[in-house]
Amino acid sequence: MINVFRPFSEKITDILTIESLTRDVHLKPIHSHNDYWRKRPFFDALLYGCTSIEGDVWKFHKDYTVTDTVTESTSRFIRDQVYVGHNQVHLKSENTLEALYLRPLYRMLESANKRYSEPIMSMPSKKFGVFFNSPELTLNLWLDLKTEGVETYLALKQQLKMFMDKGYLAYYNVSEASFVDGPVAITLTGDVPWTFLEEEEKSVDSRQVFLDCPLEQFIGADEKTRRKYRKFCLFASASLEHLLGNEDFKSSLSQDFSEAQKSRLKQSFDAAHALGIKTRVWGGVDWPIHVRDMHWKSLWGLGCDLINADDLEAAANMF
After folding, report:
1. Is the pLDDT of residue 281 over 60?
2. What backbone torsions phi and psi does residue 283 show, to the nearest 5 degrees?
3. Distances (CA, A) of 232 to 157, 171, 250, 285
4. pLDDT tens digits along 97-116
5. pLDDT at position 119
6. Contact between 159 and 80 (Cβ < 8 Å)
7. Sign of CA dihedral 277, 177, 182, 147
């Protein structure tokens, strides 16, 4: 297991605090898509008030090295680590899940949940989170599994153990069939090992991760499927093309949604909400900007819970 308790470096990102990042920041229904591309992954999302952050994660079967033939620099990737990046070709060995997300997140949670010599009046049972003005709110951290699901999940489970031990994660109580809130909620998307997790749940008391379920399948889903999604998912997501269909998706690329398209989208959102599951749409329009902005406004108005954004400044200004 990676030793996340080793001495921290003195980089500027290591001394940013909850107060310096989120004090007087209005929280917004924004999902920081491909968050690791930002100048300061994790921190920029908090500065803009995002309540949801997503990173693509990679876990390899064996160690390997890569040599850049131009710079002649060599990077070493090790099998016991989890890396963050968009594709394997452009991964950087220093961009680990631990370094970019888990280490700073853990530091902030530790700082927010100080040890008091005397009890505090009205101290909540839930641990405090990373939002200065609203410490009771949950940060949603999505991990998009780019490598084989079971192996990647097991590696993530090891790295998340310190959060579990401190009560920093929302979880599903298996024996009581109930959701227990926490400062951080982990949602797995991508190559999610549904079958493995369903089997694992038969022998555990709680599950500390939630699964992204396919929003496009909610309309007309049978009761067995609905029960499964209700138990495993906090969110359901789908691409805009999956929800609209290929032809309607193409017609929406240069204009706002038609009334028929809006009706179809709202049906999907309503079907998820009926199960207590929130929604996100990805793969939408990024350009032209005016079309993107119209889509953001329409999706929010129709009931989409998270606005999928690559341009955080534009989304924050809109919401």
Report:
1. yes
2. 70, 30
3. 16, 10, 32, 29
4. 999 999 999 999 999 998 76
5. 58
6. no
7. negative
- For residues 138 and 184, the answer to whether their CB atoms sit within 8 Å is yes
Residues of the chain by 3-state class (helix, strand, coil), percent to 5: 40, 20, 40
Given this model, what pLDDT does residue 16 score?
77
Question: What's the pTM value of the predicted model, to 2 decimals?
Answer: 0.92
Q: Which two tokens stand for residue 165?
A: 């031990």
Distances (CA, A) of 195 to 7, 52, 226: 38, 26, 16
In the sheet that 171-173 helps form, which strands lie side by side, from edge to edge? Answer: 178-180, 171-173, 206-207
Determine the Cα–Cα distance for residues 286 and 294; give it in Å rounded to an integer.
Answer: 11
3-state secondary structure of 92: coil
Residues 6+ apart with CB under 8 A from 188: 142, 143, 145, 153, 156, 209, 210, 211, 212
Per-residue pLDDT tens digits for 114-151: 876 565 556 566 799 999 999 999 999 999 999 999 99
* Cα atoms in the 13 Å half-sphere on the side-chain side of 69: 0
